[in-house]
């Protein structure tokens, strides 16, 4: 008998749906038992998000400051698991506060030590640097990262900015202005992700994950878009400065977060198209760098 623990947090249900699709073919095997653990916050985050709270979550998310989570069910600690699937979302280019809080808790130390872990992210599209932060947290828990699947909204970057923000602020998945695509991971991609379960099952039964990530990548589990990597890296530098500033002046928090909102607006709508243009023009010069980056971010090693 193989026991698989799926650890997840989700607001809209998207991450749970993704995890359910990924483990669907594992579940069909009579020899595999799946246990779900839903991370719960002592003080839950709202969904849909009021705009002020959405931006208020920024500094603590980016600085990876943990909040208190509810104790996981005690039954989790009486079982022996063979594999953990960690399903997480990205907030502000970092693991969401609930995921970060779990990974920094004593519970994670107990549950993840020496455990093979597969990460499954469900984000808008900017996840590569968040995954680096998750790699560090897993290493701190002495977990063994054996695979990664990155599920995203595949629409054009500036389109998904509009549609995902609309979804987060209304709680409704709808076609903005009647013609923009639905936000989030598409139904088609969800259905297709069941193939990852078949691959994982083989490795679970062999108790050997050596070639797992290579097979997952060959089957489309991780798409790395070089422009998004470059934006992620640049935005991480800016977010570092902004989060330091907001946390340094707690009395001016509201005002500074308002400025941050204006910065984000300008960065997304005015700076990013310019950066995209420069990036495209200089593409031939960056060929080798981009190739190396792609290989690294599709992998599971930590630099
Ligand atoms: C506060 C907040 C910040 C977010 N920041 C990012 C981000 O930096 N990059 C990204 O790709 N998606 C980002 N997203 C989208 C989430 O990664 C995720 O796709 C969405 O919240 C749905 O997840 P759910 O399963 O919790 O409903 C953000 C969402 C929220 C609520």
Span between termini: 35 Å
Radius of gyration: 19 Å
Which ions, cofactors or small ligands are bound in this entry? flavin mononucleotide
Q: Using the coordinates above, name the CATH class of the largest domain.
A: Alpha Beta
Helix-strand topology string: EHEHHEEEHHEHEHHHHHHH
Q: Give the helix proportion (percent range).
A: 40-55%
Biggest sheet details: 5 strands, parallel
Summarize model confidence as the mean pLDDT: 97
- The count of DSSP E runs of length 2 or more, i.e. the number of strands, is 7
CATH architecture assignment name of the largest domain: 3-Layer(aba) Sandwich
Q: What do we call the CATH homologous superfamily of the largest domain?
A: Flavodoxin domain
Broad structural category: alpha/beta
Query: Spatial order of the strands in the main sheet?
Result: 2-1-3-6-7
Taking pLDDT < 50 over at least 5 consecutive residues as the criterion, the unreliable ranges are none
List keywords for this structure.
303 residues, alpha/beta, Rossmann fold, 2 domains, 13 helices, binds flavin mononucleotide
């Amino acid at each position: 008998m193989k026991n698989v623990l799926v650890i997840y947090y989700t607001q809209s249900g998207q991450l749970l749906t993704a995890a359910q699709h990924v483990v669907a073919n594992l579940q069909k095997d009579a020899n595999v038992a799946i246990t779900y653990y839903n991370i719960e916050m002592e003080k839950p985050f709202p969904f849909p998000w009021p705009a002020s709270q959405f931006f208020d979550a920024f500094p603590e998310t980016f600085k990876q400051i943990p909040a208190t989570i509810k104790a996981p069910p005690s039954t989790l600690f009486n079982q022996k698991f063979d594999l953990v699937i960690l399903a997480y979302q990205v907030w502000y280019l970092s693991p969401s506060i609930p995921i970060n809080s779990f990974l920094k808790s004593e519970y994670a130390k107990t549950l993840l030590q020496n455990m093979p872990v597969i990460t499954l992210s469900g984000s808008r599209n900017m996840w590569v640097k968040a995954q680096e932060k998750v790699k560090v947290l897993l290493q701190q828990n002495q977990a063994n990262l054996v695979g990664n699947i990155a599920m995203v909204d595949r629409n054009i970057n500036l389109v998904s900015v509009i549609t995902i923000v609309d979804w987060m602020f209304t709680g409704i998945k709808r076609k903005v202005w009647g013609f923009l695509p639905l936000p989030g991971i598409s139904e088609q991609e969800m259905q297709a992700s069941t193939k990852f379960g078949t691959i994982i099952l083989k490795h679970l039964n062999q108790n050997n994950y050596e070639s797992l990530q290579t097979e997952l990548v060959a089957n489309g589990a991780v798409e790395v878009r070089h422009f998004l990597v470059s934006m992620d890296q640049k935005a991480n530098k800016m977010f570092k400065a902004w989060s330091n500033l907001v946390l340094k002046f707690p009395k001016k928090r509201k005002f500074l977060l308002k400025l941050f909102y204006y910065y984000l607006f300008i960065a997304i709508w005015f700076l990013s198209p310019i950066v995209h243009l420069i990036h495209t023009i200089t593409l031939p010069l960056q060929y080798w760098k981009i190739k190396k980056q792609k290989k690294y971010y599709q992998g599971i090693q930590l630099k």
